[in-house]
Amino acid sequence: MAPISKECDFLVIGGGSGGLACARRASGQWGAKTIAVESARLGGTCVNVGCVPKKVTWNAAAIAETIHEAKSYGFNVKETAPFDFTTFKHKRDEYVRRLNGIYEKNLKNDKVEYLHGRAHLLSKNEVEVVLDDGSKETIRAKKILLATGGHPNIPSVPGAEYGITSDGFFDLETLPKRVALVGAGYIAVEMAGMFHHLGSETHLFIRHETFLRPFDPMIQETIVKEYERQGIHIHRNSSQSKVEKLDSNSEAGYPWLKFHYTDKANPDGTTMDIDCLLWAIGRSPEVEDLGLEKAGVNQDQKGHIKADDYQNTNVENIYSLGDVCGKIELTPVAIAAGRQLGNRLFGGPEHKNAKLDYNNIPSVVFAHPELGSIGLSEPAAVEKYGKENIKIYKTNFTAMYYALMPAEAKAPTSYKLVCAGEEEKIVGMHIVGSGSSEMLQGFGVAVKMGARKRDFDSCVAIHPTSAEELVTMK
Questions:
Q1: Which of the 8 DSSP states describes residue 70?
Q2: What is the model's pLDDT at position 79?
Q3: Taking 80 as the threshold, does the pLDDT of residue 309 lie above it?
Q4: CA distance 10 to 140
Q5: For position 294, what pLDDT does the model report?
Q6: CA-CA distance, 342 to 354, in Å (whole number)?
Q7: How many Cβ atoms from other residues are within 10 Å of residue 55's Cβ?
Q8: Is the distance from CB of 95 to CB of 56 less than 8 angstroms?
Q9: pLDDT given for residue 52 in this prediction
Q10: Is 463 tagged catalytic?
Q11: Burial 28-40 (b: 16+ CB within 10 A, else e)
């Protein structure tokens, strides 16, 4: 056993949003001697290859969309040059690097010692960290948090390595001409929308008839129909058998690939030449060399670390949160759970029961248009409460923004409230349409507080807005 080189109250393995939130709360607010270890860039998936650069790219796609729509309002916008994806990409990278620096500065401000290296457990209280220069630190900690996040999956298809994942999306230097995205979750849907509106011919391959299948059926039906209206090619009931690298390059400078697949229209199989293939088929926990077996930490069948609602693992004084647990893989969830854990472990008796409430957590998909959801879908509510105890309120309309546009250019807006019992408590809210992300944050507070349909009705509408429809449903 290597000699102990450092000791601390709290060791956090993983410098993503959740781990850093917990480390800073433990040290900055409660004074625990804390060390944080990260092997890549501070901020984790969200800051580097997730939420942040994704939203910046979504903004660019939304601007492109607005430029296209401006002519309906009388503007004659002439583009003197195509969208400069390369300049945009470099500015986005610069923004992310600034955030990396801010995260490191915040650790210093909260007196968290930061080590850049790869950590693995030696026992339930000891961890070895291999630093960038190859040297090693052995740390003894009273408590350890495992917040290592996850990584994208790549299928076992011949030639799959010629494709990229959501991580590789942010490395693209130029905009591909023809893109195939494989996946039906929010990552595939968001990136398909961004590629399309920035100018790539976009093909989305899904295994079933719709995508975003964990969401309410209204959301699935609305956004699938809208993507097809916009011109995104959706390949239903698809599977992929092989990817071949061709000799020629596209105008964007990427090698052309021959993509072999079947879909509803081509059950016997066909091919497509593309210059970008993006796999968005799910994520796995980042646990490969974490040494969980040495400390006896239990995992589920998919490899996620098992943790209860208090973030406890089966091993005393080892905790886990965020994507590595596979519960609700959203950055704000990890941050909130991390702060509550920091409070519970180091905040004194008044915080002994502190934990995150995992019920009614709002989520948004930055598709085109945006969509949001909180609570139960209609099928889930029927299963929980019984069909006879559920009442559905819904509306479909065209937002005033599209009033001056031709019928074929108008995007839909659809809202649904799922209410339970005689009190008509709102147990689910599902919205599709422009502004859904900002809208849901406010309405989410009401749903979290247990609002009833009559509480929504009692709020005077703000006119003219799309949001007013949520307080005027009949």
A1: G
A2: 86
A3: yes
A4: 9
A5: 97
A6: 9
A7: 12
A8: yes
A9: 98
A10: yes
A11: bebebbbbbbbbb
Distances (CA, A) of 351 to 24, 110, 277, 417: 16, 20, 48, 35
Beta-bridge mates of residue 43: 16
Task: Tell which residue, 170, 192, 197, has the closest CA to residue 83.
Answer: 197
Instruction: Residue 16: name the closest of 153, 146, 108, 129 by CA.
Output: 146
Hey, CA dihedral for 392, 440, 432, 18, is it positive or negative? Answer: negative
Strand 425-432 vs strand 283-285: parallel, antiparallel, or unpaired? unpaired
Q: What is the largest CA-CA distance in the chain?
A: 74
**CA–CA distance, 419 with 257 (Å, rounded to integer):** 49
- pTM exceeds 0.85: yes
Let me know the angle formed at the C-alpha of 201 by 159 and 279, rounded to the nearest 5 degrees.
Answer: 35
Q: What integer pLDDT is reported at residue 62 of this predicted model?
A: 97
DSSP one-letter string for 278-300: EE-S-EEES-TTS-HHHHT--B-
Q: Which amino acid is at 197?
A: H
- Nearest to residue 310, comparing CAs of 370, 376, 354? 354
What SS3 class is residue 137? strand
- Which tens digit of pLDDT belongs to each residue from 264-306? 999 999 999 999 999 999 999 999 999 999 999 999 999 999 9
Residue type, 275: D
Catalytic pick among 116, 151, 430, 463 = 463
- Please state, in angstroms and rounded to a whole number, the distance separating the CA atoms of residues 393 and 428: 11
Per the structure block, which two tokens stand in for 63? 């601007």
All residues at 6 or more sequence positions from 442 whose CB lies less than 8 Å from its CB, including other chains: none
Alpha helices in 315-435 (DSSP H): 331-346, 378-385
Instruction: Encode burial over 223-259: b for 16+ CB neighbours within 10 A, e otherwise.
Output: bbebbeebebbbbbebebeebeeeeeebebebebbeb
DSSP 117: E
CA atoms within 13 A on the CB side of 116: 10
Phi, psi at residue 428, to the nearest 5°? -160, 140
Alpha carbon separation from 396 to 139, 222, 466 (Å, rounded) = 58, 10, 11
DSSP one-letter string for 229-276 = HHT-EEETT-EEEEEEEEEEE-TTSPEEEEEEEEETTEEEEEEEEESE
Please give the single-letter amino acid code of residue 343.
Answer: N
3-state class of 431 per DSSP?
Answer: strand
Query: Going by C-beta distance under 8 Å and a sequence separation of 6 or more, which residues neighbour residue 316?
Result: 124
Query: Could you say which DSSP state residue 330 is in?
Result: -
What radius of gyration, in Å, describes the C-alpha atoms of the chain? 24
Nearest to 385 by CA among 417, 359, 358, 424: 424
- Find the helix or strand (DSSP H, E) in which 96 lies: helix 85-109
